[in-house]
Each structure stands twice: as structure tokens, then as C-alpha cells.
Amino acid sequence: MFELVAYEVDGRVATISHNRPESRNAESRQLLDEMDAAFRQAARDPAIGAIILGGKGDHFSAGHDIKEAQVSRSNFTVEERWEYERLRYFDYALNILDCPKPTIAAVQGACVAGAFMVANMCDIMLASDDAYFSDPVTRTMGAAAVEVLIHPWVLGQRKAREMLFTGERVSAEEGHRLGMVNRVVPRAELHATAQAMAAKIADGPEFVLQLVKRSLNRTADIQGLRTALQAHFDTHQLSHVSEAFRKVRDSGLASAIRTGKAS
Question: What CATH number does residue 25 fall under?
């Protein structure tokens, strides 16, 4: 049914994995469409009690598929870009946040930009000891961070500013210290740890878990989460008509990413 995500069921746990390891699990249009469909499938299935989001191979995901964007979307109008990114980046991410079933992100290796967004939409995050988190978009792409500005909500204002202004990585251990990551485990134990936790959660009363999750989401919304995310999405779109982004686009998006990595 799916080509670029893997959908696996073990007991009452569904695992949805980025499945482009040869491309560091870059999130192409097809992969994002399939991931959203997979989450909807798991949410509808009464036999599933919890969902794990992971990545096949060495990395959770390197984020947005920049090569695809350069080929197919570099000349989008403002309206075309807004509609594409609203659906596949913003709405799909919030669909994970609003999934009625508990979700666990199991992160190894790179978790960058767009992948940082989707991982942080999950209720719980587990990370391998070699995992790292990064959002270099402000520095390398001339854009106002990624579409879903979840950073200050999961890292705190100070660390979010440092991460976005410098483009530097946050390690799994630092993410744990700051409260973004629930547990850090050896890479070899990541899948088993996530599976065991998900199975324990799935064994709980489904309706009660759904109600608790709704209340927790509403608590964040009362504090302004959803309004802040929506406001930043529009700001992010505005940054695509800036002179900085024009220069990056004209020189090649992939080239900008390589330059950013080198620096």
C-alpha cells in the first residue's frame, strides 16, 4: 500500500517509518502524503492502541527533500507555495498532534528541519544516544525557520533562539536535559524501548487516553500554541519573498544546504 513509508503492526502497536534510507529519509511529497495516510489508517483501526513514528536506516530523517523542491517547486508563485506548504507541512504536522491515539517518536541519527517538526508533534519522544536535532533553515535558506515553529515550546525560548540563530545541533542528551526528549537509550535498544512503551500505553483504556490527550492539547492551545504556530506559518511564507531567499533559490537550494553544512 505504501512505497516510501513502512507500516508495520505488532500487537496493538502500529509503527510508521520514513523509508528512504538511501536519501537519509528526506521527506518528499510522496513520503509526506503516505505518512499522513498511514496515520489516518492507524487512527481509524480499532485494533491499534498506540503509534510509533520512526525512520529506517541510519537516520530518522534529514527533513525536507531539497532536491525535489529545487526541481519541482523553485518557481512556485506565492499562492502555490502557500497552498503546498499549508497542506503538506503545516496541516500534516498538526494531524499528528491531533491524532486521537498516543504517539511516540523514536529518533536515531539526524532529525533535521521538517523532521524536527513531525517528531515534535508526537506525544512522547525517545532518542538514541547518537541522535541530534537541527534546524539550519534560517542560516542556509534565508527563510524564517521551518513551517511549524514548535522550537520554543519544546526547548524553551533561550535554546530555541540559539538553535535557530546559529543553526547548531542539539544533542539527544541536551534535548533530554531540556525536556524535549523523554528518554535517551543506546541505538541498539531504541526500537525495543519504543515498542515496549507503546505496548504498555496501548494496553490502557483507549477512550480515557483519548480524553486525556485532548485535554493536554487544549492546555497547550489555551497557552497559545496553535495560534502561535499559525502566525509563524504566515511569517515563514513572507520570508520566501525576501532578497535573502531569492539569492539562495537562484544559486540552488541544494548548494545552499551544502554550504551551510560546511560552515
Answer: 3.90.226.10
Residue span of the structural domain in which 157 resides: 5-189+206-262
Are the beta carbons of 162 and 169 closer than 8 angstroms? no
Contacts of 13 (CB under 8 A, 6+ apart): 48, 49, 50, 51, 52, 195, 198, 199, 202
Amino acid at position 106, single letter: A
Question: pLDDT digit string (tens) for 16-75?
Answer: 999 999 999 999 999 999 999 999 999 999 999 999 999 999 999 999 998 998 888 878
> Would residue 170 count as lying in a domain?
yes
Please, which pLDDT band fits residue 200 given cuts at 50, 70 and 90?
very high
Vertex 194: Cα angle to 189 and 197 (nearest 5): 120
For residue range 228-256, list pLDDT tens digits in order.
999 999 999 888 887 887 787 777 655 55
Phi, psi of 87 (to 5 degrees): -75, -55
Q: Angle at the Cα of 16 (from 10 to 20), degrees rounded to 5?
A: 125
> Does 124 reside within a domain?
yes
Number of domains present in the structure of the chain: 1
199 inside domain? no
197 falls within a domain? no
End-to-end CA distance of the chain: 41
Rounded to whole angstroms, how far apart are CA atoms 35 and 37? 5
